[in-house]
Amino acid sequence: MLRPFREAVLLILFWIICFDLQRILFSIHHWGKLESVGFGEWLLSFVYSFRLDLATACALSALPFIARLIGHYSSWKWTYRIFRIILMTLLVILVCVQAGEIVAYTEWNHKLTSRVFMHLANPDEVARTASYGMIFWFILYAGIQFAFGWWLAKKFFHRIPLKNGQFNWKQLIAFPLQLGITLALMFLFLRGGLQQIPLNIGAAVYTDKPIANDLSINSLYFFGKSYLLYNRSSIDELMPKVDKKLAAREVKSWYNYPKEHDQFFLKQTRPNVVFIVLEGWSAEGIGTLGPTKGATTQFDKLAKEGLLFTDFYSTGTTSEIGNSSIFSGNPAVPEVSISMQPEKHRKLHSINEDFENWGYHTSYIFSGDLKYGNIGGYFMDHGFDVVKDENDFPSDLPRGKLNFYDRDLYKFLIKEINSHKKPFLQCAFTGSTHSPYDQPKGKGKRFTGEEADFMNSMVYADECLGEFIRNCKKYDWYKNTLFVFVADHGHATPTTVDPGASKFYHIPLLFFGEPIKEAYRGKRMNVVGSQSDIAATLLTQMKGDPSRYPWSKDLMNPKVPQFAFHSIIRGYGWITPKGSLAWYMEQKIKGEVTYKPEDFKLELKNCNWFLSSIYEDYKNL
User: Fold this and answer.
1) The pTM is what?
2) Structural domains of the chain in order of their starting residue, each with its CATH number
3) 20 to 30 A from 377, CA-CA: which of 154, 235, 371, 605?
4) Could you read off the pLDDT of 377-397 as tens digits, one per residue?
């Protein structure tokens, strides 16, 4: 009865050993690239890789296990042969991916991805660009791995003696029971457990050295996810049909506005900066910005003392997209999550790099799991000095299902700030306004009806925010600290539930603190902009160079073109002072439109030009 379960364990072990062999071969081939990785840190790649390895091994083991289990209860002599065919076919796929990655990494410096499909679509290109050396190494590494896998399979899996052809009642019960239990467990391990957020590549990221993370991340898992992303986000056939050269020329002209101006709201150019990324804080639920009153009394008070942007929008609907737009000044491309593609996002810049050049300490903290959307990996790849998540919080603190509560996050944040001995860029990402909204009850107005759970979580989060600022005022560094409050994305509210409506993406951007000039405190800026514009706006105020962020606009510049582009599910939206529109790519239909009929056609053309330009830029990363 227990032998089939033993077979499942052996199958999983077989694949994990094959994965680790590839890591050893990769390390030998790229030893020069790994010089910056210490031996102990290198060994950790075999530890942190385990969860993704286990998930991938379970996916690969399902079909061979079914064939093997049938062999235990069947008298059919072909079962063992079928098992070997399935196992060897999967092994061939694995070794091709793993050997291909070893060879391709020399040129690409990133893991094997869907980019390979663009090359395979033109076999002549592959034949002419692949050197004899690359072909030799590919064949060698594929041969070593396949020979080892063949030998290991012979050691692990022997021919099962044929049965007499008769089923008894115990066998009839045992077969479906063993099949169901084993496949269910494999699916659970494939998912990474029972937690709300499934496993992803962030589970294997453990250092700020990209090559070590690439070694840790399971190659087949990464390639499989990349293939799914390739199929899902290869939206060329859905893209608007425009003259790409004309579009690029026109969009470039929008960013060539005169850069000189005198609208500087900072007293000094090198304050400390604290970014608070507010989970899901929709402007429509904020009293000073939207129609729903009573949830954000503390934020409303801060807005009266700071510089508030009232016509500001998120670039997408998820946290990882919001964070990459905020810190890298990067617009969102529909159906694309760039933080999940290290080979692309590593070519972007992040504002922490500018701060570090000025001698700042940089840190990012989240009280939940930064593996989601590979947010933690994104920030480690971009060189934040410190990246901390729930694993760094005291384990005895009360917490919700997804994260520690905002009140404890802010206390942890202040403790972090107090440990710094030089100017700092300190970033924190809140979480109590994320479902399942199991935060402690707030003391303010209680909401009922549609989106009541979210709005009541806003009450609690707002109380924590006010308390945080009051506590900050107790420390000397407060007087020289600029606070930047911005949401990662919008959220449904009692007045806005349509994820295609522009108001769904309406979020706050508030600059607050003593470094702001008196003339700008309490001022409301009505310029249209998005998260991707924060980089240029802040760096210009600090007399830095925003040219490394070509898609970011300085919103304090009176001559800046006013527009905001955002992605929606299988579509995109466009907002200007004249109105807004949404366009669904697959259906080729418009969603909500607030433009006058005579303006709609022109604005849709401008929107399509912009999308074409950022998509081409994304493909060329």
Assistant:
1) 0.82
2) 3-232 (no CATH), 248-620 (3.40.720.10)
3) 235
4) 999 999 999 999 999 999 999
